Amino acid sequence: MSKPSQISTSQNDLFQPRLSQILNPKHPLLLLAKRIDWERLESDLGLTFSPDKAGQPAKPVRLIVGLLMLQHREGLSDEAVVLKWVENPYWQAFCGFDHLQWRLPADGSSLTRWRKRLGEKGLETILAATLQTALTMGLASKKDFEKVIADTTVMEANIAYPTDGHLLNKAREKLVALAKKEGIVLRQSYSHVGIKLLRKVNGYAHAKQFKRMKQGLKKLKTYLGRVVRDIERKLTDQQREIFEELLCLSKRLLEQTQKSKNKVYSLHAPHVYCIAKGKARRPYEFGTKVSLVVSHKQGLALSAQALEKNAHDGHTLEDALEQASRLSGRGVSQTFVDRGYRGHGVTQGNVYISGQRRGITKSLKKALKRRSAIEPHIGHMKAEGKLRRNFLKGLLGAKLNALLVSIGHNLRLLLAFIKHLLALFLECIAEQKIFSLKKIESKGHLST
Description:
Strand 3 (284-295) and strand 4 (301-306) form a beta hairpin. By secondary structure, this protein is an alpha/beta fold. The two termini are 48 Å apart. The protein folds into three domains: 12-134, no CATH class; 140-159 and 272-412, Nucleotidyltransferase, domain 5 (2-Layer Sandwich); 164-255, no CATH class. It contains 15 helices and seven strands. Strands 1, 2, 3, 4, 5, 6 and 7 form a seven-stranded mixed beta sheet that branches. 32% of the residues are buried. The mean pLDDT is 89.
């Protein structure tokens, strides 16, 4: 149980009514806030948000964690969550404020810095806190965390559909703009002829005139190659570090072919890779693969990892189970997976694969049928959370987004459990009133 909020109030707040006296105390958010161990979170994350030597002091830990939880529970952007926080007094009470706030709690862009300061370890601490809250509320028991389901999905990156012509022309434009900023005079920038040729290449592709399209792509490569060589000749030692990353990506674009591995699909997100899912409606997806582990019975997210490479599903299972055991505090004894995990080589507990017959009892057969229960949970993470598309930058942003999506998913399950308990409680009260009225009628104390 959490103690009253330690967030300080201003002198003007002393003359305002308290939210605890106005709001509905049985609201699910307020009931959940009482069950979260905020003191432990403050002690674990306090060093991360300690005030720096210079500048404005850091925001309270409960405010930061509460904003991130509410943001990924609703699937909102950084700007939208701080605006809605001002409008919703229940959100303010959840974050530890006892007086109505009229100003934004922070600038929306500062959430980016908070995520970086938290890092993977900080978000894992918050995810572990949601699992501990589930134990405290009775949604799950420690034994439930020993039986899990694992699966992988694709989290698409926030990039345009990659085409060779677009990437070649974009790389040339970025190099020309950076050269102009650094005061490097190029022999030729190809600005007018480059964009004109790109339009022709797109038209050839639309008309299925592939020979002309290939000739246009070859000429776009020539333009990019000339700009790269011109810049390399005129670079100084100080400027070489500034151009290093962009020149490296441009050279990879010039060298890669249709059958090349480790392709570049986006200049601002070079970590993105192509994943073939075998779906007729969407055969290829561009992003990162995410490995998820949920509890077998409740569907609570125990682990979420964005993978750096497009690894085989079986090779990702060991790390995923290790994270699930570490965050839940219980070793995994039974894991249920699909056939993509064959050849996993995991020795931790027993791993059961769909379609397996050897060593399967009736109870295991029933549990194995429930393996597909992870699919609707992934669907909710994509529809209600931010698992469908990642808007955070870089591989670190993908890893943080996967953990935040899991935190938001667990929060939705906890709130749904509280609403279910409230509905049962009200139903019991209604039945008890009806029973008491019938008892009074039977004694003749109530006229018909």
